[in-house]
Each structure stands twice: as C-alpha cells, then as structure tokens.
Specification:
Blueprint (H helix, E strand, L loop, with lengths): L2 H17 L1 H8 L7 H13 L2 H4 L4 H15 L4 H15 L8 H19 L9 H17 L3 H18 L23 H17 L1
Helix pairs in contact: 1-2, 1-3, 1-5, 1-10, 2-3, 2-10, 3-5, 5-6, 6-7, 7-8, 8-9, 8-10, 9-10
C-alpha cells in the first residue's frame, strides 16, 4: 500500500460511515445512546476536512492524524476507542513510505490492541472486539499462507462480518448495552458494525 492507497482507504471510510450513519444509529437505538452513526460521521467529517493536507503525509502520519482527530471530535466511547486504534496503527507502521502485506497486518493487529487496551474489552462481550479479533486472526493466517494483499484484506473483512453477526445473540457485558441485561440479546452491536465497515473499505481499496 502506498501513501495514496492509505488516503484512499480513509476517504472510503469517511464515505461509507456517512452513507451508513442512520443505519449505525438505528442499531445503537435499542442498546446504546442512539448516536454511534452520528458520532462516527462527525468524526470522519472532521478527518475529511484534513484530507487536502494529508496527501503529502506518509501512511503513519495519515493514520496518526485520523486518531488525533477522532479523539478530539467524537463523543461517547467510540472516539477514544477508534482514536487509540488509529494511533496504535500509526505507530506500528512508523516511517514507512510503502506498506507491505506484513505491515498492513501489523497495523491491524495494533489497531485491535489499541481498542482492547483502551476499552479493557475481550471477546464475547458484544463489542467491536468481537468483529476485530477474528478479522485480525484471519489476516495473520492469510499472511502466513503467502497470499496477495487483496486476498488478505478480503478474508479480514469476511471474518469481521461473521464476527459482527455473531454479536446478535450475545448478552452484552460491556459498555452502555450491558445495562440492558437480557434485553441486549437479539441486537447487532453497532461498534462491531462500524469496525466491519472500516475493514470492508480496506478490502475495497486493495482489491
């Protein structure tokens, strides 16, 4: 991935989150504060404002800019969580002018690590970690098999989608949704959904 590819990924994420803002908020209504889509769209609109200056940055600096922007503009839990994820991802590919398949997988692993560290979350708690954990595992398996980057990111997105759908029957034990107890069962987690959208966007730009 070149710096241009990374920027194309971020631009695609901004577009997709804007297109799905109402859907994400709809998912958040029964189990959260009904603001996940609005918050993510606001954060990436602020990121979009910086795209003109981000073209000259390397991938690491682009990701760092996203992370800092999300932390400062997104309310609720998703700002600090995704902000930390992008900052950790940035550190994993520091000073790289071009990202190899191994770099991209390292970036994704650090992205997940940032969310786990910030949210103190683990799998089966009905959070974004339930989409990202199988996604990163799939990315690492694909890397070990030596398949091209397009195949790595496609498998990553597919695993994230499966993980996202697996949150529907889960009982939430973390975050706002955990207050609902049994009533959280039967709802797809909005954070897992936005995580899938971010990874699907990566698969689209690297296809």
């Amino acid at each position: 991935m070149t710096n241009e590819d990374t920027l194309r990924w971020l631009e695609r994420v901004a577009d997709v989150l804007h297109e799905n803002a109402a859907y994400l908020t709809q998912l958040d209504s029964p189990i959260g504060d009904a603001d996940h889509g609005t918050n993510m769209d606001r954060g990436f609109k602020a990121v979009r404002d910086k795209f003109p200056t981000m073209g000259a940055m390397d991938s690491s600096t682009q990701l760092k800019t996203v992370g800092m922007t999300l932390v400062s503009t997104v309310g609720g839990a998703s700002g600090p969580l995704y902000g930390t994820a992008f900052l950790r991802g940035s550190a994993a590919v520091a000073n790289k002018s071009e990202l190899t398949s191994a770099d991209v997988v390292a970036l994704l692993e650090a992205f997940l690590g940032g969310i786990v560290a910030r949210g103190k979350a683990t799998t089966n708690e009905k959070t974004m970690v339930d989409a990202l954990t199988p996604a990163v595992a799939a990315a690492k398996r694909a890397l070990n098999e030596g398949v091209p980057l397009a195949e790595i990111t496609a498998r990553t997105a597919a695993a994230a989608e499966e993980g996202m759908k697996a949150t529907i029957p889960m009982l939430a034990t973390k975050g706002r949704a955990s207050y609902l107890g049994e009533r959280s069962i039967g709802h797809q987690d909005p954070g897992a959904t936005s995580s899938w959208l971010i990874l699907r966007s990566l698969a689209e730009v690297t296809a």
